Amino acid sequence: MDKSKLSEKRHILIITYYWPPAGGIAVRRWMALANELYRKGMEVSVLTLEPNSAEFPLLDETLEASIHPNINVHRIRAFNPFKWVKKLFSSSIPAPAFAPKSRETHSANWLTVLRSHLFIPDPRKSWNRRAVKRAIEIIQEQCIDVVITSSPPPSVHLIGLRTKRKTGIHWIADFRDPWTDIFYYSRLGHSKLSRAIDKRLEMMVLTKADQVLAVSWGFARLLSDKLPPEHLKKFHVLTNGMDFDPSSTVSSKNSDSSVFRIVYTGVLAQSYQIEEFLESLKLISIQIKAPSIAFDFYGSAPPQYIEQLEELFDFVHFHGNLPQEKVLTKQIEADALFLIGPADYETTGHIPGKLFEYLGARRPILYFGQPNDDVMRIIQETQAGICLIRGDSPQHLRALRSQIEEHSKDLLPVDGLGPYLRKNQAQDFIELLPS
Q1: What is the pLDDT of residue 6?
Q2: pLDDT tens profile 386-421
Q3: 152 preceded by cis ω (within 30°)?
Q4: Which of 47, 134, 255, 393 minimizes the number of CB atoms within 10 Å of its CB?
Q5: Kind of pairing, strands 292-300 and 259-267?
Q6: CB 284 within 8 A of CB 261
Q7: Rounded CA separation 318/175 (Å)
Q8: What are phi and psi of 166, to 5 degrees?
Q9: Strands 211-214 and 235-237, how do they pair?
């Protein structure tokens, strides 16, 4: 094809396993950026899987309508090993993210070990060969300037690696999570050999990629420290962001001034270890007679855990799952929003997607975590809340008392939120591209 006859617009190809009808923050990141990049004058193509060939932990059929119609989406078919595993070993599949089950079975352990030896770096690599072939065709047909691969799964970066070798295209590897440093890596049952192979693949990707993006500063340091200092300039941070303009958030008139209402939205598990914080709230509720304290959970949690918390803390109330638009309303009506950081810190780089949702609600954030991690970096930068330091109950009492006594019904200002708007992040991304 004669390149002179094509548009002079920059043309990028995004290669991702997760794309609608998949749901969740893994999808929203590049779907939102793709839309904004197109609006800023770029041509955007996406290479992904046919839904029947993929395995998505979360589905959201409504997202399809959010994709700009002029974004070219290319889908390919591939063998899906998960279908056969579900049929043959449905009761033995490891829990999501390999979280420990209450009763681990022998076959579950074997499945994990097999996964880590037969599918390096992960079982979602089954589309790679076809994806490389199709990516090269798209690059040639549409005169692509830049290829982006976004993980997890980390195997998607091997598509970028092989495409780079065959075409010389400028390649950006985007890491939403670490690879061999992911928090559950030690549970995957790797042998010395399979671990060595995995680490070698990771090093090849980091070395050969022209640029590396990470969703947090902690993750960027974790990845860049694997290479010699001369590679440092290729590493950049592009956090997740807000899919709407927070300046359009409207203040709610429904909050009861006699009640200080803390709201948490999302999944809650016993492993999050929030009892320490709830004990602090219990003490505060005794010390401060007015306003009274209510802690409302909207989302899902194990029934036994719900029963346990409601029995121990009379101000805790679980309301189950709500449609997203109602969840946003509850967030805006809150006097404060509760955000949970990891109980065990292996890296400072974990930033829950919920943080950006909370920022958009413009209510004060009570972050139960550590003051030196990337979540607090953003909260401090945006002046959006406070940190309740894990393991420091006296600090909880001081911070909570101050927050409750000084709380306001006014929405927080939007001045510091600019870097986390998708349209601004898209511009930051464009400025990273080669001239």
Answers
A1: 40
A2: 999 999 999 999 999 999 988 887 888 888 999 999
A3: yes
A4: 393
A5: parallel
A6: no
A7: 34
A8: -85, -25
A9: parallel
CA 300, CA 306: separation in Å to the nearest integer?
9
* Number of residues in the chain: 435
Distance CA 12, CA 146 (A): 5
Q: What is the pLDDT of residues 151-208, one digit of tens each?
A: 999 999 999 999 999 999 999 999 999 999 988 788 777 888 989 999 999 999 999 9
Give the global pTM.
Answer: 0.88
- Residue 290 tokens, joined: 């007015």
- Distance spanning both ends of the chain, measured CA to CA: 23
Percent with pLDDT over 70 in the chain: 89
Residue pLDDT, tens place only, 12-61: 999 999 999 998 888 999 999 999 999 999 999 999 999 998 888 888 88
For the chain, the structural domain boundaries read 3-238, 246-417
Give the angle subtended at the CA of 353 by the CAs of 227 and 298, to the nearest 5°: 155
Higher model confidence: residue 86 or residue 122?
A: 122
How far apart are the C-alpha atoms of 214 and 435, rounded to whole Å? Answer: 21
Architecture of domain 3-238: 3-Layer(aba) Sandwich (3.40)
Please tell me the distance from the alpha carbon of residue 37 to that of residue 47, in angstroms, as a whole number: 16
Q: Is 289 exposed, middle or buried, given 0-12, 13-18 or 19+ CB atoms closer than 10 A? A: exposed
CATH class of 246-417: alpha beta
By CB atoms closer than 10 A (0-12, 13-18, 19+), residue 299 is middle
